[in-house]
Amino acid sequence: MESSKREIAAAAARLVVEEGLEYGPAKRRAVRDLRLPARTALPGNDEIEAEVRDYIQIFCADTQPAELRALRELAVEWMQHMAQFRPHLGGAVWHGTATRLSDIYIQLFCDDSKSAEIALIDHHVDYEPRTVSGFHGESVEALSVHAPSRALGTEVGVHLMVYDLDDMRGALRLDAQGRVPRGDLAAVRRLLDEVDGTPDGAGA
Asked: What's the CATH fold of domain 64-193?
């Protein structure tokens, strides 16, 4: 069982890096690609992330740092646009495993759940409302936009996840690996000033 989990994790990591899949779809696709039974036990996200880091180090070490920086710079732009809603960056762009195919996930903490949407409308931003998985796997409303990145020469998916202000209480609680799970605008700016680009407590 452990060997199949490792196989799935390695195959899923390749799909995450090369095709931009999220971890859940990547795991399910890896099971199909490896022709394993549908009920095969799946590796955890921590195992996938470890394989993603290894894959990047082996195959993308010359390109990934610049791509990650471009995504973080774009994230800062959007966090500045939405500064009134206490934006925090999470996901691969925060943790340092993102590539040019990765989307940006920014959590907003709002007094009124509709206020962020109204702000986008007021600024004539085209967005698509959708549902994504939140902190604990719960369904959360997201306002998704296609944001151009001049550095990458393409559009990047930016997902503005809308939370209640009360949710901020648990937003910075350390994850199972003892890492800070997300950072505010000042924290992301610090990452851009650092050489290795790994958040304090957020590395592998």
From this structure: Beta Polymerase; domain 2 (3.30.460)
